[in-house]
């Protein structure tokens, strides 16, 4: 029996969440012998996901260092993977999305002339510094990749415009929707006791994350000032801000919001807690990419605290609005959702364009088809 020898590579929590269901799908397929390599670009938050999904890496580069730089991450990943690829000689290397691990993993595979599969391929803002460094990471990975697993037809069209051959692109939906089938539970009780004390039925709970590099400084300051005004003007609102551990973000958030009534400042939650908080909340405000896909799956409107997004499908579908980091605009659009039930219902009932929970199956079928193990199994996500 012909077997494909593959290595899946990831290093951050968002990558792990989205790769986990694919790894679990590979475990069911006797024609795929998959090994897992983590770079641990983010150590603690990555380990939480590995534990949740019961994934035991075959290789752990453990590269994370205090005050690490993009250059340091890239070189340590390249050096670590060189020996692994030399010893394992895989047929296929699979990377995800747009992290520095993603680009360095694809580049290391290219240097060894190994086929590269790119999950969540084709997302674009067409501004190389927004988001930074993710936009260039995914474009450079796309230039290397042989198999492009695009989550949507819009992502596929981006790749076609860049000259990628259509028979190398597979529209699959996003694997994060697959992951949420594992994590979201009705009647969920949080491990964090403060979250269990909030009245999700009678309060309008806003879940917030904001930490992106391009928002450091003035952007985070404006977001915090807006949240303060929203909370003070709306007694029915409770804000839960999951504050990134980076002191550049954390210090400013606590300085502005530390004493504001009905604003709860909590450290980042693990994946299961985050997904279930999202399921219980009223709406989401974020500069994250992944939450733009996850929250609409649960019927939660999303205000994106960025000026551009590589996920325009959700904006077009009406589940997401781009609000930027202007304080008055954030307040205005948040109040529309808090006070106007019609506006809220339009966003909360819009169809999520990112998947049906079967993306991992489609990716697996596409790989088997590409390596001539089985035909006619892959069917494009509509």
Please explain how this structure is put together.
Helices cover about 45% and strands about 15% of the residues. With about 375 residues, the protein is α/β, with parallel strands linked by helices. The strands form 2 sheets. The chain has a 7-stranded parallel beta sheet with strand order 3-2-1-4-5-6-7, with helices on both faces. Helix 1 packs across helix 16. The two termini are about 35 Å apart. The model has no long low-confidence stretch (mean pLDDT about 95). Its EC number is 5.1.3.14. Belongs to the UDP-N-acetylglucosamine 2-epimerase family.
Q: Averaging pLDDT over every residue, what do you get? A: 94
Radius of gyration: 21 Å
Helix/sheet category: alpha/beta
Describe the oligomeric state of these chains in a short phrase. Answer: single chain
Biggest β-sheet description: 7 strands, parallel
Topology summary:
Blueprint: E1 4-10, H1 13-26, E2 32-38, H2 43-52, E3 59-60, H3 70-88, E4 92-96, H4 100-111, E5 115-119, H5 134-144, E6 147-150, H6 153-161, E7 169-171, H7 175-183, H8 193-196, E8 204-209, H9 218-233, E9 237-242, H10 247-257, E10 263-266, H11 271-280, E11 283-286, H12 290-297, E12 302-304, H13 312-317, E13 320-322, H14 327-339, H15 341-348, H16 359-370
Parallel strand pairs: 1-2, 1-4, 2-3, 4-5, 5-6, 6-7, 8-9, 8-11, 9-10, 11-12, 12-13
Helix pairs in contact: 1-2, 1-7, 1-16, 3-4, 4-5, 9-10, 9-14, 14-15
Keywords: Isomerase
GO molecular function: UDP-N-acetylglucosamine 2-epimerase activity
Family: Belongs to the UDP-N-acetylglucosamine 2-epimerase family.
């Amino acid at each position: 029996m012909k077997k494909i020898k593959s290595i899946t590579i990831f290093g951050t929590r968002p990558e792990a969440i989205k790769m986990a269901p694919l790894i679990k799908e590979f475990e069911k397929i006797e024609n795929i012998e998959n090994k897992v390599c983590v770079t641990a670009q983010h150590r603690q938050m990555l380990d939480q996901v590995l534990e949740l999904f019961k994934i035991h890496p075959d290789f752990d580069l453990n590269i994370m260092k205090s005050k690490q730089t993009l250059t340091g991450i890239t070189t340590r990943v390249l050096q670590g993977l060189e020996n692994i690829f030399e010893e394992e000689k895989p047929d296929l290397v699979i990377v995800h999305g747009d992290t520095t691990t993603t680009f360095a993993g694809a580049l290391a595979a290219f240097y060894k002339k190994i086929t590269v599969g790119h999950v969540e391929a084709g997302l674009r803002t067409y501004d190389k510094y927004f988001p930074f460094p993710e936009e260039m990471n995914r474009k450079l990975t796309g230039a290397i990749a042989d198999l492009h697993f695009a989550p949507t037809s819009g992502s596929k069209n981006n790749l076609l415009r860049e000259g990628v051959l259509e028979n190398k692109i597979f529209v699959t939906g996003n694997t994060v929707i697959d992951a949420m089938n594992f994590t979201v539970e009705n009647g969920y009780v949080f491990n964090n006791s403060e979250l269990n004390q909030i009245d999700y039925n009678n309060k309008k709970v806003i879940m917030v994350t904001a930490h992106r590099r391009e928002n450091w400084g003035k952007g985070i300051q404006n977001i915090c000032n807006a949240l303060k005004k929203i909370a003070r003007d709306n007694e029915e609102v409770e804000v839960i801000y999951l504050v990134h551990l980076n002191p550049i973000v954390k210090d400013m958030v606590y300085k502005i919001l530390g004493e504001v009534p009905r604003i709860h400042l909590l450290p980042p939650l693990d994946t299961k807690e985050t997904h279930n908080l999202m399921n219980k909340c009223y709406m989401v405000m974020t500069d994250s990419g992944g939450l733009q896909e996850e929250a609409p799956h649960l019927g939660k409107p999303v205000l994106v605290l960025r000026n551009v997004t590589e996920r325009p499908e959700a904006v077009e579908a009406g589940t997401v609005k781009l609000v930027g980091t202007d304080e008055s605009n954030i307040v205005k659009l948040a109040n529309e959702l808090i006070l106007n039930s019609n506006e809220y219902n339009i966003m909360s009932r819009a169809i999520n364009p990112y998947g049906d929970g079967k993306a991992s199956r489609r990716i697996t079928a596409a790989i088997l088809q590409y390596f001539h193990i089985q035909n006619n199994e892959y069917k494009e996500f509509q």
